[in-house]
């Protein structure tokens, strides 16, 4: 049933965010530590485990894939409620600081991609089983 | 008649949100096909349109939530709010390849630290150029360039003035908006085309809304890889900002 997929997605999201909250409290920082990322890992891990046992297929999958499919419209709705006006009226310093941060980060992407490519050659994949 | 229409539209906010955003998507894909022959993704145009509308909304109402401050469009706030956004981001992980993630794991963590560090330095550099000299203001503005959450969290922890905190939030917002807008154009130049590069991109940029929007407009297949690392970025920034980065700045400028 489709609701099984939606409920499974909901449980993974809540569990991930809960772990993220606990990690934040434990580390003493006022932020959710990777909650969404942990939820994604839970979904990947539990999803493939249940899938292999034939407990998560067909109709149930549709409950997850619907939400993945409406992701872009949701992001558009998110864009429409950013404080663009406030950001731009923050003045030249704020604009320049944000711009520099983005330009530097863009420039670093190919640098790190190259490091990433060399890395597996050196270590090979001896540890992937552990 | 007008009153009844308003009652339905505002009372059924989320539903109105679906309708308005669906229409926006349709217009955007039409613009993409007719004027750019599909070269510029429909989703990129839609996000751009959303940002422009939110500017108009902000200028019009003086509020801080873009289009959502217009009562007729308040349902968009539900649709694009943190709850459904996170729910949908988690759902995108369903098609993720575990092998690709494993291959990128180590560089992803490295990217997070490099990303927080480089954004912070960029922000501090600009603040210095604009004449700030005290460690508290420099750290807060630098943290704002990390994300618009890290800025005020750091500023509050080290006692920055509210004016500096507002600047740091603005810097972070500019970053998020630029990442959304620029990513589809810059992607071919920086080799952002594989799951691994998306993991690195997410770690370097970090702003969840920026990464979510930027990757959606570039290639939806890359979204989960980037969002996965970006999910840890703000927390890392909040952890390092008031501690290590502040102590470093205090050591540097006294």
From TrEMBL, chain A:
InterPro entries: Maln_transptMadL (IPR004690). The chain crosses the membrane at residues 34-51, 63-81, 93-113. Pfam families: MadL. Keywords: Membrane, Transmembrane, Transmembrane helix. The keyword Nucleotide-binding does not apply. GO terms for cellular component: membrane. This is Malonate transporter subunit MadL. It comes from Pseudomonas brenneri.
TrEMBL record, chain B:
NCBIfam families: malonate_madM. Pfam families: MadM. This is Malonate transporter subunit MadM. The keyword Membrane applies. The gene is madM. Residues 5-252 form the Malonate/sodium symporter MadM subunit N-terminal domain. Keywords: Membrane, Transmembrane, Transmembrane helix. It comes from Pseudomonas brenneri. GO terms for molecular function: sodium:malonate symporter activity. InterPro entries: Mal/Na_symporter_MadM, Mal/Na_symporter_MadM_N. The chain crosses the membrane at residues 12-31, 43-60, 72-94, 106-131, 138-158, 164-186, 198-217, 223-248.
């Amino acid at each position: 049933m489709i609701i099984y997929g939606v409920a499974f997605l909901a449980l993974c999201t809540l569990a991930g965010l809960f772990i993220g909250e606990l990690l934040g409290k434990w580390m003493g920082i006022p932020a959710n530590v990777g909650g969404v990322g942990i939820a994604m890992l839970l979904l990947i891990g539990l999803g493939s485990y249940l899938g292999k046992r034939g407990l998560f297929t067909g109709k149930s999958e549709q409950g997850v894939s619907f939400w993945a499919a409406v992701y872009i419209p949701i992001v558009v709705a998110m864009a429409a409620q950013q404080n663009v006006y406030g950001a731009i009226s923050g003045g030249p310093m704020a604009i320049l600081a944000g711009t520099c941060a983005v330009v530097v980060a863009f420039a670093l992407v190919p640098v790190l991609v190259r490091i990433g490519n060399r890395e597996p050659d050196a270590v090979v994949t001896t540890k992937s089983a552990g | 008649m007008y009153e009844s229409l308003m009652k339905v539209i505002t009372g059924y906010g989320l539903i109105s949100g679906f309708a308005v955003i669906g229409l926006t998507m349709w217009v955007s894909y039409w613009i993409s096909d007719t004027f750019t022959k599909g070269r510029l993704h429909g989703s990129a145009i839609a996000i751009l349109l959303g940002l422009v509308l939110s500017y108009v909304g902000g200028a019009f109402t003086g509020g801080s939530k873009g289009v959502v401050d217009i009562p007729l469009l308040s349902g968009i706030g539900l649709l694009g709010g943190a709850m459904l956004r996170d729910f949908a981001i988690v759902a995108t992980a369903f098609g993720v390849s575990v092998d690709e993630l494993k291959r990128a794991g180590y560089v992803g963590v490295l990217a997070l630290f490099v990303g927080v560090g480089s954004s912070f330095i960029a922000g501090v550099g600009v603040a210095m150029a604009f004449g700030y000299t005290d460690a508290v203001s420099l750290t807060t503005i630098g943290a704002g360039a990390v994300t618009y959450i890290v800025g005020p969290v750091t500023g509050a922890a080290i006692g920055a003035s509210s004016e500096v905190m507002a600047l740091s939030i603005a810097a972070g917002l500019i970053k998020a908006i630029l990442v959304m807008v620029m990513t589809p154009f810059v992607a071919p130049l920086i080799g952002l085309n594989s799951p691994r590069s998306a993991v690195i991109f997410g770690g370097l940029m970090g702003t969840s809304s920026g990464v979510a929007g930027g990757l959606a407009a570039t290639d939806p297949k890359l979204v989960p890889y980037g969002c996965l690392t970006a999910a840890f970025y703000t927390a890392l920034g909040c952890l390092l900002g008031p501690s290590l980065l502040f102590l470093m700045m205090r050591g540097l400028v006294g």
